[in-house]
Structures are given as structure tokens and as C-alpha cells.
Amino acid sequence: MADFQRLIMEWYRLNKRELPWRTTVDPYFIWLSEIILQQTRVAQGLEYYLKFTNNYPTVFDLASASETDVLNDWQGLGYYSRARNLHATAKIIAFDLKGRFPDSFDQIKSLKGVGDYTAAAISSFAFDLPYSVVDGNVYRVLSRFLDIDLPIDSSIGKKYFAKIAQEFLPINDFAIYNQSIMEFGALQCVPINPPCDICVLTNLCLARLNKTIALRPVKTKKVKVRNRFFHFMIFKDNDKIILVKRIQKDIWQHLFHFPLIETEFETGIDVMCSIFQDDFGLKPYDFSSKITHILSHQKINAVFYFFDTLPPNLSNDFIVTKTTAIQDFPLPRLIDRFLENNDI
Ligand code: SF4
User: Fold this and answer.
1) CA of 190 to the centre of ligand 1 (A)
2) Cβ-count burial of 34 within 10 angstroms (0-12 exposed, 13-18 middle, 19+ buried)?
3) Is residue 320 part of a domain?
4) What is the pTM of this model?
């Protein structure tokens, strides 16, 4: 165990990427980086981290911003619940806790959007507390180094890896050790074809010895993907266009998009045209081909229908805005992608 710790910490010193959240112990910046980096690649996360630290240099700035501004700045990063939690938590820290960031693992974990991994990361990186991080990289490194065949997505596997990870923590330098094992998994012990012949652990790694590298870590469950069918209606009259705010507890909550009808199954254009006729008394003059948008557990199948007028009866949910102002609203990535490729 001591060799493992020493070797990966030495490797980290020589190979780590220079990233701005690694040069600070300010819990606000570390928390920002950790929320941004959840489900996000480092290169993309870096861009958003710089934007957020520039636009909101203190927790008070973030807490005082409007939700629309925060969602706008988050646009393109996906998983918008993270941005809403970020904003809600900033308000609690700024106003209820008077700007003092919680400094114990349990208090940090009680913040919205913070689970075991993020609480351990903030506790160790900001306060150098002895909590081991367990993310996808750590699962991979430990499962290969020890050749563990317990599934990482089973409750028994999760408990086992959490225990092992905690046992592997050195007696000091918790922050550096946690950064080292994660970076080692991200750059050296990569998912496919890791370069084991140049690995500092090559003589100690049990999966290498047992030729099971490609089988580690073990996962049991397949992610079930839900197919959804969205029909967006672009009602446009000269420079006026209609948007709606998505308020229901679902994907894209609090974001804006064109009025939408969701159908349970793939629905043909003729059927949709008769629905539009019944609901709005209008027929589209054109429609897009199907656009597929993949989320973590959902596949969105979207078709956009073009109308050259606004509906005679405007629903209360409809927001009439200028076509030039669409980008001022926080939009789901799917809508953003559509606008990049279509002149509205
Ligand atoms: S020897 Fe290969 S599988 Fe083992 S820790 Fe190193 S890179 Fe990962």
C-alpha cells in the first residue's frame, strides 16, 4: 500500500496537468470546479470554470445573480439541475451562513447537489481532511491494481471500494493523494488499452499479472435509455417568435424552448399536422428532418415544424419575443444546436 501511494504521488508530481482549481484551497472555487466537473470532461469544464470564476468571483456574486443569468452561463454544459443547485446553495452559503463555507464532511455533504464523492473532494482539497474520493477513475485504478471483480455498480461493490479507498489513504497529504489517484486514472490507467509497459505500477498491478485488465472494473447494469418524441413548433411572424419556459420537474427545468408537443410514440407528419390544426387552427409550411439528441438516460427524437404566423389564441405559457433575442434565454443544448444550423 505504501508503495502504491508513493509511486502514484511521484507520478502525479511529474505528470499532472496544471489546472486552476488545483492551485487554490478556497472552498468556493473548489466547490465550483467539482460541480462543473461532474459528468463533464476537464477541457470543457475548464472553460466553464473560468467563466464562472470570472462572472462570479465570490459566493456573494453567485448568490445575487438571477437564475436566468446563471442558467445562461451554464448553457451547453447539460444536467441543468447542477446549475440550479449551485445557485440555491450559493444563496444558503452567502445569506444564511454569512459567506462561511461549511468545513466538515457532513456539513459539506448536506449541501444540495453534493454527494459522497464531491463532499470528499471538497473536504480533502480545501480543508485537507482525511476522506478518500471514489470516482470512475479511482474505481478503475483500484479494481485493476487489486484485481477486484466485484461490480462497481452494486451496493456491495460500492461499499467495498469505499472501504478499500479509505484504507489506501496515506496518513497525511490527503489532497495530493486524492488528486494523484484521480489523475492517474484519467491519464495513465485509461479505460481502453492503458499503456501498462510504461506504468509505474506495472510490477505490482494484479490485473496486469492476471491478464484481466480489459475486464476491470466490472459493471452489471446496463443503463436503460428512454426514447422520447418531441415536436417543436416554431411559430414566427416576421421578427416575432414564441418560446415557453419549461417548469415541470423533468429535463431542462427552467430553460426555454419552442412550444412543444410530446407524443408517446414516433408520430407521422400527417398525424401531427391534424393535431396542430385541431389545437391551433394552423398548418406548418415546412418541417425539419428528425434530430436525435442523447442525454444520459434518454434519447430525444425531435422534429421542428415551421409556421409563418403566431397562433390566433396565445396560451398563457407563450412568451412572445424577438427572434434576435432568443439567445438571451437559457436554452437546452438541443435547441442551441438547432439554431446553430438553421436561420430563424
Ligand atoms: S499496469 Fe496497467 S492496468 Fe495496472 S495500474 Fe498500470 S496502467 Fe493500470
Assistant:
1) 8
2) buried
3) yes
4) 0.77
